[in-house]
Design brief:
By secondary structure, the chain is an all-alpha fold. The protein has helices spanning 3-13, 16-32, 36-52, 56-72, 76-92, 96-113, 116-132, 136-153, 156-169, 174-191. Helix 7 runs antiparallel to helix 8, helix 8 (136-153) runs parallel beside helix 10 (174-191) and helix 9 packs antiparallel against helix 10 (174-191).
Amino acid sequence: LNYHKALEIFIILDNKQEIGHMYDLIGHIYEDQKDYSTTHEYWNKSKEIYQEIENQDGISTAITHSGLLCMNTGDYLGALNNFKECLVLEEKRDNHVGTQYALQNIGKSLLDMGELNKANKYLLKAIEYSKTIEDKSNMHDGYECLGVLQLKNKDYKLAKKYLEISNDLVSDCYITKLFLYLTYKAIGKKYN
């Protein structure tokens, strides 16, 4: 598919929903090409269109995509700002799934920034939302992040607890198993 051609057609038809969607898809293409400034440009256009037509899901998606891109490129403050904006939006519309996702992303950003106490607070809140909406995958991810956080805090007992919970939720995740290995290794060094 030629997304640019499709975008032109939707612009002629004045189909704002599809224009926003095309901007989002084109942003992903530029992300794959590692052209991150153009990626942000298209996701901002997507957000603007979705704001114009008051599509809250589209707005949230555009903000989240920008936040994840910031996080993946090491712009943790940019990520944090995007995820906080998303949290306000999701809480305002009482969307528990979106709120959980925003809280978890804020916690991950803070963890990456070394703000462990703040990260802990957001990750614990995210897990509570995950339990409420019965989202096993995000519970797994949240507990894994808490385990990593406790590894950084050198609280190996709590790290082990969180990582074992994470592993029990999704037992085929090699990353969780790696962190569990590192925890067991650290415990062995500490107590031997």
